[in-house]
Amino acid sequence: MVSLAVDIAGVRLRNPTMLASGILGISGKLLRKVARAGAGAVVTKSVSLHPRPGYRNPTIIEVDCGFINAMGLPNPGVDYFMKEVVIAKEGDVPVIASVVGERVEEFVEVALKLEAAGVDALELNVSCPHAGAGLIGQNAELTYEVVEAVKQKVKIPVFVKLTPNVTDITEIAKAAANAGADAITAINTVRAMRIDIETGKPILSNVFGGLSGPAIKPIAIRCGYEIYRVVDVPIVGVGGICKWQDVVEFLMAGASAVQIGSGIIKGLSIFSEITEGLKCFLEKRGYEDINCIVGLAHRV
Amino acid sequence: MKEAYDVKSIFFSRGGLEKPKAGQFFMIWIPGIDEVPMSVSFIGENELGITVKKVGEATAALHSLSVGDKIGVRGPFGNGFTLSDGDVLIVGGGIGIAPLYPLIMDLLNTTDSITVVLAAKNNKMLIFLDKISNILRSECDSLVVVTDDGSAGLRGLASDIAAKLIEEKSYDHIYMCGPEIMMRKIFNKAEEKGIEVQACLERYMKCGIGLCGSCCIGEYLVCKDGPVFNSEILRKLKDEFGVFKRDSSGLPIEFSS
C-alpha cells in the first residue's frame, strides 16, 4: 500500500491535495463538504479584520484556458469567521486560514484570532493581484516584515502565498523563509484582463484581475522549481491543477503538497480522482511513499 | 415590455446560447454598471426574455435600456425545474412568478391540472395575470389571485391561501418562487401532507458557476446545485431556508416577515 500522507511544517495531510484559498471557502459547511469529498486540507477565503463586500460584478470571466477573477477579497471579517472555522473543523482535515490585511498590525491581529479559533495553520495572502495588499508580495522587505511580525506572535505554522507578478520570485521566497515562514505557497493568480469587443469595455468591474486555470500551470511549475532551489522550507504548489498528472509534475518540481482552485469547476470528485490516480502512478513506478518524488526533477 | 410600474420584461436574441430550461438563469452584464443573475421568463426558439423588478442600480440600468442596446449574457446556469405530472400547485409571489411562467407552459403538456396562486402586495404590483390566464386550460386549470391588501382577488398572504388549498386538495407536486418566508411556510405545510415541492431560491451571486461560494445555502450552491431545490434537499436546509441569507461579504442576514 503506497502512502500519500505528507507533512507540511508539522501539518499532517492524508494526501497532498488541498482546496485553494478563494474557492468556496466562505462558509464552514462548504469547507467541511470539500474535506469530506477527499481533500487533504482546506484553505479558507482570505480573512480580514473587518468585513469586505468585495468588488462589484462582474468579478469573474471565463477565458480560453481558465478564468480571470477580481473578487476583491470578499469575506465576513475575522470575528464572524471564527464561527465558520468551528464548523469547517468538523471535516476532520487540517483547516488552513488565509489571512489578509492592509497593514502589518492587521495581519497579526487577524492571525491571532484565527489561531484562537482553532485553525491548524495560516497562509498569509501577500499576493492578491488586484487588491492593495498584493503589493506586499512584490517587495522582499515588506514580505519579510509581515511574515516576521506574524511569526513572532503565533505558534501555529505560517505559510506565505507568493505572487508570480514579480521579476524574480526567488528573492521574495528567500525573504519569506528568512523571516521564519514555515512553508511557501506558489503561486497566486497572474495579473490579467479581458476586454469585451462589442463595447470596447474591460469586462471585470476592477478592470484587472488574476488569471487562474490550466493557462498558468507552466508558470506555477517554473516558480515551484525555482523556489525549491533556494529555500529549505516545504513548497505548496498551486496553479491550474485539473488532473493527477499535474500533481505529479508539481511534486517533481519540488512541491510537497498542492492546492486546487479553478479545477473544482467539474466537481468536488476531483480530489478523490486525483488521489486514486496518484496511488496508481506510485504503485506502477514502485514508490511506497509519495514524498519520494518531491523534487525529483532536481535529481535526475 | 412594461409589466407593472416597476417591472419590465427585456428580450434578447438567443445567439449562440444554449436553450435554457425553466428555472435556469443568466448572468446579465450591463457594461460599466454591474452583473446580476436573472431567471429566464420567456423561452423562444430564437428569443429569450427576463423580467426585471427595479430594486437597485443594476435593475434601474436594465429598465433604462432602449431597444438595440447591448448587454452581456453568460449562461444558462443552474439546474432548472423538473417536470412532474398529475395535479400541481404553483405559487408565485411578486416577481417570483417570472421563472414559473415558462414552467407553466411546459407543465401544460405533462399535468392533469394546474392551480396557480398569483400573489402580490397589491393590484399595482400584480404581474403576468393576463399572460397566465391566457395559457391555462379552461377545462382543468384554475387561477387564484391574492393580494396582501385585497385590492385584487382574495385578500391575504399567499402562504395562507396556498396552505388552505393544500389542506383541501391532494396535489401531487408544488412549485414555488417568491419571498423565502412564504416558501418556507408552504414547504412546512407540504411536509405535513407529504407533498413534494420544488422551490426556486435566490442568494447574492458573484461567479454564477460554482467557484466562489458566495451563493451558498448549507452545503449547497444556489448557482450550481440550484436555484431550484426539491423537498429532499430543503429538509437538509432547515436552519437556513427561510431563515437567513448572506450579504456580499458572507455575513448572515436574517429574513424578516
Radius of gyration of chain A, CA atoms, in whole angstroms: 18 Å
Estimate the mean pLDDT confidence of chain B. Answer: 96
Judging from the principal axes of the Cα atoms, what is the shape of chain B?
Answer: globular
Structural class from helices and strands of chain A?
alpha/beta
Biggest interface found: A-B, 40 and 29 residues
- Widest sheet: strand ordering of chain A: 3-4-7-8-9-10-13-14
- Annotated CATH homologous superfamily of chain A: Aldolase class I
Determine the number of helices of chain A (DSSP H or I, runs of at least 4 residues).
8
With helices defined by DSSP (H or I, 4 residues minimum), what is the helix count of chain B?
6
Largest sheet of chain A: 8 strands, parallel, barrel
CATH architecture of chain A: Alpha-Beta Barrel
Keyword list:
heterodimer, A: 300 residues, alpha/beta, 8 helices, 33% helix, globular, B: 257 residues, Elongation Factor Tu (Ef-tu), domain 3, Rossmann fold, 2 domains, 6 helices, 17 strands
Q: Could you give a short description of this structure?
A:
Chain A is built from 8 helices and 14 strands. Chain A is α/β, with parallel strands linked by helices and 300 residues long. Chain A has a single domain, classed as TIM Barrel, CATH 3.20.20.
Descriptive account of the structure:
Chain A is α/β, with parallel strands linked by helices and 300 residues long. Chain A contains eight helices and 14 strands. Chain A has a single domain (6-298), classed as Aldolase class I (TIM Barrel, Alpha-Beta Barrel), CATH 3.20.20. In chain A, 33% of the residues lie in helices and 18% in strands. The radius of gyration of chain A is 18 Å and the shape is globular. The model of chain A has no long low-confidence stretch (mean pLDDT 96). Chain B is built from six helices and 17 strands. In chain B, strand 16 (244-246) and strand 17 (252-254) form a beta hairpin. The two termini of chain B are 31 Å apart. The interface between A and B is medium-sized, with 40 and 29 residues.
